[in-house]
Design brief:
binds heme C; Cytochrome Bc1 Complex, Chain D, domain 2; two-stranded antiparallel sheet; 64% helix; mainly alpha; single chain
Length: 104
């Protein structure tokens, strides 16, 4: 039952969000993967659920704020926007969401 409902809406959602998701992955690949792909310098790795649980618990707003402004954490230093000042706040937010979605 649940599946049928989802299938109905999925086509429409895919049309609308397809670009956004592709952009989020592209942003991640260009600006974030260098550290977050392999866990360089203490960065929580994409796909490493354990590394993200505590971070997700502080809330999406805090994580996005940290990603945009940068911060010094316990594990290392997260540079503002990963060092890519040309990214918009929305692009950074989408990349954070992309990482969290793929690290459950
Ligand atoms: C130069 C390496 C580097 C790059 C590039 C980088 N990060 Fe990070 N990031 C880190 C490190 C190190 C931490 C962990 C800091 C800590 O908590 O000690 C971190 C933590 C984070 C966190 C967790 C924040 C929190 O509150 O726990 C998010 C979200 C994040 N990065 C998003 C991004 C995004 C989005 C990008 C790409 C736009 C990116 N990072 C690029 C090094 C990097």
């Amino acid at each position: 039952m649940r599946k049928m409902l989802i299938v109905g809406g999925a086509a429409a959602v895919a049309l609308i969000s397809g670009n956004v998701m592709a952009d989020a992955k592209a942003t991640y690949d260009t600006a974030c993967a260098a550290c977050h792909g392999q866990g360089v310098a203490g960065a929580p790795k994409l796909g490493d659920a354990a590394a993200w649980t505590e971070r997700v618990a502080q809330g999406m707003d805090v994580m996005v704020d940290h990603a945009i402004k940068g911060y010094q954490g316990k594990e290392g230093y997260m540079p503002p926007k990963g060092g890519f000042a040309n990214l918009s706040d929305d692009e950074v937010k989408a990349a954070v969401e992309y990482m969290v979605e793929n690290s459950k």
